[in-house]
Amino acid sequence: MSPFILAISTIAIILAYKLYQRLRFKLPPGPRRWPVVGNLYDIKPVRFRCYAEWARAYGPIISVWFGSTLNVIVSNTELAREVLKECDQQLADRHRTRSAAKFSRDGKDLIWADYGPHYVKVRKVCTLELFSPKRLEALRPIREDEVTAMVESIFLHCSNPENQGRSLVVRKYLGAVAFNNITRLAFGKRFVNHEDIMDEQGHEFKAIVANGLKLGASLAMAEHIPWLRWMFPLEEEAFAKHGARRDRLTRAIMEEHIVARQKSGDTKQHFVDALLTLQDKYDLSEDTIIGLLWDMITAGMDTTAISVEWAMAELIRNPRVQQKAQEELDLVIGSERVMSETDFSNLPYLLSVAKEALRLHPPTPLMLPHRANANVKIGGYDIPKGSNVHVNVWTIAHDPVVWKDPESFRPERFLEEDVDMKGHDFRLLPFGAGRRVCPGAQLGINLVTSMLGHLLHHFCWTPPEAMKVEEIDMLENPGLVAYMRTPLQAMATPRLPYHLYKRIAVDM
């Protein structure tokens, strides 16, 4: 048989199978798909906004084709409940791209693991051990150290005569907190000293993160069109080198902790120590320990900084809310001390500000996709096994059916009604819900609230000189996580006595 006839026959079989699938299943409606590419060329770069537009045209459950892969997007509270609660077990697997499969050693971690015995085991480790209230409280001094370091850094910028009248890039300071906090929690390492000089391991860590992003981006198009993959072969050697480099750094840090523990006899609270001491109890492989540590870094490094940057943009655009939060802080904390996480229970308005920012600007607007491990029905439509299901939490959080005046930044709504945001109320899902809800949700909430509280207590925030609040760019960058398209610039004016701007350093 000639290659041409073989190719035609193969395409005919695939098309026949697809036609059979369409006749057999009642799929959700959606935009017209094109041969080979599906809807890939119709999708606008900021996907969750594009899907929100399509949901208005086709309904709250839609089919979107990435090449030959069916993606189902749900966009209201009732359908989110079906996906994340009622049909959760059938939709608890993960779609792993070739790069995700390589990075996770075929799902040996938590984020990319399919639902099964391994996932249940590592999830238990995270819930009962790594993110337990006891451990989070034990690690609180690290979080508070890093937040006060941010305050000191901003204060030094403001007090420098050379910066008189000059705005600062807020993301720079938030990113430093997120970076130092997550490396200290996960690895027990602060790669940056008090003079902001990064050590050799820190440079290596940053290079590994940057290289991982580059490798992951190199395969984007071919992931969705299987018969194009021969044109985009997986760079086995590059991925192998990246994995070896990542493992080498992680093992070196693990070894440092083992030696330190043998010398002192003490077990620290950092995640690396916890995993090493729990290795035998939970039968954790080295691949799984390394995978879990890098899961923490992947999930925790960007999301907190993103959430706080959006919140600060909203607070600058809404001076009434900023003033009200500062009045609460002045009443509860005063001007003789700095805020602590132990003050949260007495700061309901500050907590509402954090919650409202996470509603309007969820850091992962589409969550990670859930993959169907069986044929299932959602909203009366068939979802065939192997399809990917996305919950558009951004659209749900902007739905006028469930939220009064949804586009307004109005924290008071959460004083009028207590809405859970850790997966129990399907109107507000910044951390997901169900079997794959983020196990570090409470850690994220604590850090976002602490950063916001310190920024508001220590400084008044206004737009740069000659900029109106309406000119702040409130659109998102394309990507899995929703960065502000234009980094926020602002003027910070100190509002407390000078001695309260000193970093409260903790060595642990």
TrEMBL record:
GO terms for cellular component: membrane. Pfam families: p450 (PF00067). It is a single-pass membrane protein. It comes from the Eukaryota. SUPFAM superfamilies: Cytochrome P450. It is found in: Membrane. Gene3D superfamilies: Cytochrome P450. PROSITE patterns: CYTOCHROME_P450. Heme binds at C438. Keywords: Heme, Iron, Membrane, Metal-binding, Monooxygenase, Oxidoreductase, Transmembrane, Transmembrane helix. One of its GO terms (molecular function) is heme binding. Its cofactor is heme. Its main location: membrane. PANTHER family: CYTOCHROME P450 98A9 (PTHR47944:SF10). Belongs to the cytochrome P450 family. This is Cytochrome P450 98A2. The lineage of its organism: Eukaryota, Viridiplantae, Streptophyta, Embryophyta, Tracheophyta.
